[in-house]
Design a protein that fits this description.
Blueprint (H helix, E strand, L loop, with lengths): L7 H7 L2 H9 L21 H6 L46 H14 L3 H4 L12 H11 L10 H4 L13 H9 L10 H13 L8 E6 L7 H15 L4 E5 L19 H6 L7 H5 L3 E2 L4 E4 L5 H6 L2 H14 L2 E5 L7 H9 L4 E5 L2 H16 L3 H5 L2 E5 L10 H9 L4 E5 L3 H4 L11 H16 L8
Parallel strand pairs: 1-5, 1-6, 2-4, 2-5, 6-7, 7-8
Antiparallel strand pairs: 3-4
Helix pairs in contact: 9-20, 10-20, 14-15
């Protein structure tokens, strides 16, 4: 049996090359075979996926519903910026900067207008980074430079056993001396209260002299006494100069409440006004008390007193304003004479004196009514009423009702108690007054000072 070759190589080797090429050219270029496979089962979406699935809705981007509102474009206009305020603003005239950059530049320009002093104030300081004392110091620096009077010992010295002042009296003073200054309990509550009252009286003023008239419509209620007490309390507690001018046109007695050191009067001040060049010249015409209160007397001749008019008072007031911080004016009993008008025109505050009787209280209230009717309503609302309880009839009336009446009209009311030294009508020694009388005078002084403006243009 002949040997038969079944492999392709053998088959190809037996065919001639021409036959192989002819067979290759007769085959198609591509051959497609279709295979039918069984259909795959459809996938069912779980319930949790169906709950959060987003429906696929075809959207035509070229379709616009005319019933729906469309988008509106607006133009954002930014304010003009200065190039020097913010370096990020382009120097060219092109609009390469975005609106956000323009807003940043606007904020930077506004911030550049604030000074460094404004930025270091307490409202811009983190509370956690600075103490309360440092924030107060920043506020003080922000309000402007301080004067030398702000450097007080209470502010600069740390209170301890060595720097605390020695007690002024009582048991605390005894303990301080008994322990050879080893135990310093400080001042008692009473002493501290008196010191606080002194501090109120010693309030500093800036910008000119303050004028305080003391007036009433009735004589004999203690107006001159109240003027003396008020002046002594002010002069004793304050470091500046205080003067009380007797402008009573009917023979005032203010100069009789202190030891006379001169016979000069307001008339001498008027006649010598052109020769008064300094405080030494003026002080030779006044009498000075132990509390350093200066008193300028009125004329003893009633005819000359009547001639003291508005122009004369203005001459005296102008000279007093050159040398004194506070000028008290004893206005007398009349309120319609020309001196009263000049006094009220200069007044920064007034003191109304009332007695403790019915008619004295009524006349004092009528004085307030007259002032309100003549355009001095502001002075009435800022007034202080001093009720002299040493007058006749005080024990027969209800002082609380008198005070209640005046509380509806004025700022404060003070009672002046009976004191034998004041009742004598002679020279008043401030140190010999009863403690209650001296305390009432100091309270009156503190209330008057609180009603005076602290700062005022010259």
């Amino acid at each position: 049996m002949p040997n038969t070759k079944t492999s392709n190589d053998e088959y190809n080797s037996e065919l001639p090359p021409e036959s192989v090429d002819s067979l290759a050219s007769s085959l198609p270029e591509s051959l497609s075979v279709q295979v039918d496979l069984p259909a795959a089962p459809a996938r069912v979406m779980p319930a949790d996926e169906v709950a959060v699935a987003i429906d696929e809705v075809a959207v035509n981007p070229g379709f616009v519903d005319s019933t729906e509102p469309t988008t509106t474009s607006i133009e954002v206009v930014t304010p003009p910026l200065r190039r020097s305020s913010y370096s990020a603003v382009p120097s060219s005239g092109t609009s390469s900067a975005s609106p956000y950059d323009a807003l940043l530049a606007t904020d930077a320009a506004a911030a550049a207008q604030h000074s460094r002093r404004d930025r270091v104030r307490s409202e811009h300081v983190d509370i956690g980074s600075n103490s309360a004392y440092e924030q107060v110091a920043e506020q003080r620096r922000g309000d402007g430079p301080e004067d030398a009077g702000m450097l007080t010992s209470e502010r600069l010295l740390e209170v301890n056993r060595r720097t605390r002042p020695a007690p002024k009296g009582g048991w605390n003073r005894f303990v301080y001396n008994a322990t050879f200054h080893g135990v310093n309990l400080g001042d008692s509550a009473k002493v501290r209260a008196e010191q606080a009252l002194t501090d109120r009286i010693a309030k500093q003023f800036n910008g000119g002299t303050r004028f305080v008239p003391i007036l009433t419509r009735k004589g004999g209620v203690g107006k001159t006494t109240v003027t003396t007490l008020l002046g002594m309390a002010l002069a004793d507690a304050r470091e500046d100069r205080i003067i009380a001018v007797d402008a009573n046109p009917d023979r005032g007695t203010l100069s009789e409440r202190v030891t006379k050191q001169t016979r000069a009067t307001v008339r001498d001040v008027v006649t010598k006004a052109h020769t008064i060049n300094g405080f030494t010249d003026f002080s030779s015409l006044v009498s000075r008390d132990d509390t350093r209160l200066d008193i300028l007397a009125s004329d003893t001749d009633p005819m000359l007193s009547e001639a003291f008019d508005e122009n004369d008072y203005n001459v005296v007031a102008d000279l007093a304003a050159r040398f004194y911080s506070v000028v008290l004016t004893d206005c007398g009993t009349g309120i319609v004479h020309s001196v009263m008008r000049a006094t009220l025109q200069r007044a920064d505050s007034i003191v109304i004196v009332s007695g403790g009787s019915v008619d004295e209280a009524r006349l004092a209230s009528e004085t307030l009514t007259w002032l309100e009717a003549n355009g001095y309503g502001d002075l009435v609302r800022n007034a202080v009423v001093a009720i002299n309880t040493a007058t006749q009839g005080t024990n027969l009336v209800k002082l609380e009702e008198i005070e209640s009446h005046f509380q509806s009209r004025v700022r404060e009311i003070v009672r002046i108690p009976y004191d034998p030294q004041l009742a004598a009508g002679s020279v008043v020694n401030y140190a010999d007054l009863k403690p209650l009388t001296r305390h009432s005078a100091r309270t009156l002084a503190a209330l008057v000072v609180e009603g005076l403006p602290s700062d005022r243009a010259l």
